[in-house]
Amino acid sequence: MQNLAIAIHGGAGTITPASMTPELEKAYKRALSHAISESFSVLEKGGTALDAVELAVVLLEDSPLFNAGRGSVFTKEGKHEMDAAIMCGKTLEAGAVAGIRSIRNPVRLTRAILEHSDHVFLSGYGAEEFARKYNIAFESEEYFYDQHRYKQWRDVRDTDIFILDHTEERKFGTVGAVARDSNGDLAAATSTGGMTNKNYNRIGDSPLIGSGTYANNKTCAISCTGHGEYFIRAVVAYDISCLMEYKGYTLQEACDEVVMNKLVKFGGEGGLIAVDGKGELALPFNSEGMYRGYRSSGKVGRVAIYKD
After folding, report:
1. Is the pTM of this model over 0.85?
2. Consecutive sets of 10 residues in the chain, 308 residues long: mean pLDDT of each?
3. How do the domains of the chain map onto residue ranges?
4. Distance between the two ends of the chain, CA-based, in angstroms?
5. Which CATH class is domain 5-306?
6. Which of 48, 110, 167, 174 is catalytic?
7. Is 174 in the active site?
8. What is the rounded distance in angstroms from the CA atom of residue 58 to the CA atom of residue 86?
9. In whole angstroms, what is the distance from residue 287 CA to residue 264 CA?
10. Strands (E), 14-81
11. What CA–CA distance (Å, rounded) separates 114 from 84?
């Protein structure tokens, strides 16, 4: 049996049953289940890990439930600024974007950068010009509009307050996926709409290779979700890879050391999804909950929100 594996996340934070209606919980789980099913099907048909993580993130970006793509929150200026990254564990090639607007699926653009550019990281207007060159889909501002997100931004737009996501609870809005394919190759992708009312073109950890996104066939593939400033300072994704490569940690040991120990000690909240070369999965988080799902060869898939 091939050790195929996929894991996805849709954000972490103070997510509790008390903050969730039964209807909304079902909607989240349906969206996660759909993304898992479709992306795992790619792996079963012999598709690459890159193909699988790109599709999983596209499906989450297309849902208004998650703070990425269509569901992106409003900035201080009442606009949408999106960040994303993708990385191939076999070649260590990567593509990343920051501060882009009007692009339907930022992860599609990161894949184009990985495949067609000598650069890794593009931002703003230049990234959008690159997107036009490779026929990446754009959408109008109306496509990204959500009444609930707009109301929350309107309530704080005249202050210096930023909000970590579009709910009244503390939630870190990011989507991501990691996968292992039939060739044993790994890949990771992450996408986010950032923080409500964010100013100064703030960029979080999601598009930063080694902080929010990383993949290396020698060790693991990782996509993070949390308070980005802490994940940047801790270089979370690469730190886990280093513990495996240089210290001989297992995937779970490395994830627990960084997420449950190192981050907690200096106030970092959030979680991540990870897969190693054997197809083993880890989904640690130190917050109340994390929208997540996973599936691997010979095992029944699962989606979850709260702590087990």
Report:
1. yes
2. 91 83 93 98 98 98 91 69 95 97 96 98 96 95 70 56 50 88 98 72 92 98 94 97 98 98 94 97 95 93 91
3. 5-306
4. 28
5. alpha beta
6. 174
7. yes
8. 12
9. 10
10. none
11. 12
